[in-house]
Amino acid sequence: MATCTNLALSMRTVIAWRSVRLHLTLPAALIQAFLAYALLACLNVAQAAPACGPSHSPDLAKILEFELPSSGALPGGWSGGPSRTLSSGQSEARNGERVIRIERGPDSPSQFSSLSACVQMDFAGKTIELRGRLRTRDVKGFAGLWLREDGDQKVVAFDNMAHRSLHGTTEWTKYSVTLPEKKQGQRLVFGVLLDGTGTTWVSGLELRVDGKPVWQAPARIYPKTILDTDRQFDNGSGISIEKLDRTQVGNLATLGKIWGFLKYYDSAIASGKHQWDYELLRVLPAVLAAPDQASANAVMARWIDDMGPAAPCNPCVRVDKRNLQLSPDLGWITDTRRLGKALSRKLQWIGSHRQTGSQFYVALTPGVSNPVFKHERSYGNIHLPDSGFQLLALYRFWNIIEYWYPDRNVIGENWDKVLATFIPRLALAKDRTEYQLQLMALVARVHDTHANLWSSLGVRPPVGSCHLPLQLRFIQHQAVVTGYTDDVLANTSMPKMGDVITTLNGRPVTTLVKEWTPYYADSNQAARLRDMATFMTRGSCDEVTLNVRRGGQDLRFQVERVPVTKGSLAMAYHDLPGPAFRRLSPAVAYLKLSSAMASQAADYIKRAAGTKGLIIDARNYPSNFMVFALGSLLVDRRTPFARFTVGDLSNPGAFHWTPSQVIEPKAPHYHGKLVILVDEVTQSQAEYTSMALRAAPGAVVIGSTTAGADGNVSRIPLPGDLHAMMSGIGVFYPDRRPTQRVGIVPDVVVKPTVAEIRAGRDPVLEKGLRLILGPEVPISEIEQMYRSPLHEPPRN
Fold first, then answer.
1. What percent of the chain has pLDDT over 90?
2. Which of 57, 113, 259, 712 is the most buried (most CB within 10 A)?
3. Is the pLDDT of residue 489 over 90?
4. Cα gap 684→744, rounded to integer Å
């Protein structure tokens, strides 16, 4: 997922764009501070953060002093990462006080390391200050304290120490960062950041409001919203549906569309004057009881009247046609055959008499503009089954896609038909598991690899707490063994590399794929089979019978499943093991994005100088955001490489083009051929990076279809304490060609064969080498350039 990296990208783009517009050159330190803001603004998405406790908690002082016990590597109340760059202990120099050390080297993962904690802004005051003692050594980048106020799904204030340029302070030194307290702030997030490389130690943190400890500050009084005052259905809807006839399904489909339209278009509802979820639950029984379509329409017309007249608009909003990519799909509100004249007339009036302004249930992320679904409650207290809340989940998700999904025109489904299909499937789900599976199948109809029901992957088939210690990949439409999750197992009586698994416990793999497909939310078949291969052997902790084809032989194995552990079901990358950069020969340099560091980009290019070609391997997920750091060294002029579409709060369902994203050239410049390797593992940030690097003159993309899911993701809360996601901005090439579902289409298509996997070969990389070196180099020399012990073919 590209959430944090695209936020940093967008901040950088905004800075550059404004500099051009205003003919200004911003100081490097200020740009660095902006980028640090961008990274930290999404820190809680990138790394699991502790829950925000109250400011008067007796544990807060212990949290600040790193003295709260924890079962993890960090003291209680703190989170951060990457984990191997953080450690805690005691310091003799600080009289035995607890200290946390952040240490980063050239090979450390990610671009920065951060320590973070959080407290509720349930206090009142004028100034908030974070104090602490720091010691730094050999910092290349910047280090320091940071402090951030988060409002309703957005950052409202931020400060850090990027401009102070701490590189090496032998002695412990006191520092502080301050912010004015903002009324919009709800959570105070704070910590320590090390960007680049070096070491930073921190101790003695203090959090003060107007000079006093935060727990001594007076309490804040929060303004209440309709969600705080309307609590009628907090513990359940009381609606139980046992069966549905065709008339009821049709009426419920109409209700779902009207409910979503009013939510975003009726000025009173869009401004938060009604608890719109509960208004649905209030009208549902009458719609269900309606004997025919006309009666149901009359119920809905009275329901709209009961909401009261909308405030007059002056001027009323109209869709801005400038840079319009998608228009709202509202033709259905004129369908008098379905709605009747009275109901249709009411909806048309509402649609043409709306006010400009913000939305209560949705906002756009600052600097990026992917939607944030604020004020959408996940109702964790309800007991399932609950037909009312189950229908609410369907209506909420369906309408979010209808009005806020930037790629709705490439879903490839009749979205109205999807609504009608899932009404009985969700309303009649008999338990929590069936409800989750039906939601999962609904989400899958969007055909977006980002859009899984991420809260519920444990119920996606196949289910179980164990798996076979094999890595599988679909090659030539067959499930092929490509590795092992435990190297020792490669020498046991296991299937070999290149073996084709034909059945699991007597069930053909082709049958399993067909059964599981409805529950896999992927943009294309390449990504779907990739995900299935990752989870295919999951199941109960027992022995599994595998039928395997090896060449012309049919073999059978009895293999014991092993417990699933953290990372054991991670997607396998297809790049070379070893360092991020190397020379495969005196004429060819190789760089893989999975461990490349943005801070080292110029060094990689210097080391590649004089080679005929550079191969950049994107068959992985980047460890750093490399678009500008690396892309600027590959272009020789100002180069557009992508453009976005974003939603319109005043016209839900409309999407507008933004200016092109541009790479500016910098030194040192690489002059050789550029080859980019991609396949089904290349997703989101990897796809975006490939788009940018492909814009370099003469660049060639080699491989196969990528995952087809780019752009920042948006989280969608759903009843039952569940959540899905979706791609939140449209990502296109500068000429407006889409990438969603399509992916990065290679210039040269190369797919491995089962025989090549069996032989331990990498035909995609071989093609890249051949393109650089020419046809006269023997294949034996080509293979030797990239082989290592992990790439040698297995011995029988």
1. 73
2. 712
3. no
4. 10
Name the burial class of residue 203, with classes exposed (0-12), middle (13-18) and buried (19+) by CB atoms within 10 angstroms of its CB.
Answer: buried
In 586-736 the beta strands, taken as DSSP E runs, fall at 588-592, 613-617, 639-647, 655-657, 661-663, 673-678, 700-703, 713-718, 722-727, 730-732
> 581-791 architecture in CATH?
Alpha-Beta Complex (3.90)
Q: Are strands 639-647 and 212-213 parallel, antiparallel or unpaired?
A: unpaired
Phi, psi of 661 (to 5 degrees): -80, 135
pLDDT tens digits for range 391-406: 999 999 999 999 999 9
Q: What local confidence, expressed as pLDDT, does residue 599 receive?
A: 83
Burial of 563 (0-12, 13-18, 19+ CB in 10 A): exposed
Beta-bridge partners for 169: 136
Among candidate residues 105, 107, 179, 171, the one with its CA nearest the CA of residue 146 = 179
- Residue 553: strand pairing partners: 550
Please compute, for residue 406, the number of CA atoms within 13 A of its CA located in the half-sphere on the CB side.
36
For domain 459-563, the CATH superfamily is PDZ domain (2.30.42.10)
Tell me the pLDDT tens digit for each residue of 506-527: 999 999 999 999 999 999 999 9
Q: Quote the tokens at residue 168.
A: 């090496």
Pull the structure tokens for residue 400: 């979010």
The model's confidence at residue 314, banded by pLDDT at 50, 70 and 90, is confident
Closest CA to 712 of 736, 725, 729, 698: 729
- Domain 3-216 superfamily per CATH: Galactose-binding domain-like (2.60.120.260)
pLDDT for 476 beyond 50: yes
Whole-prediction pTM: 0.82
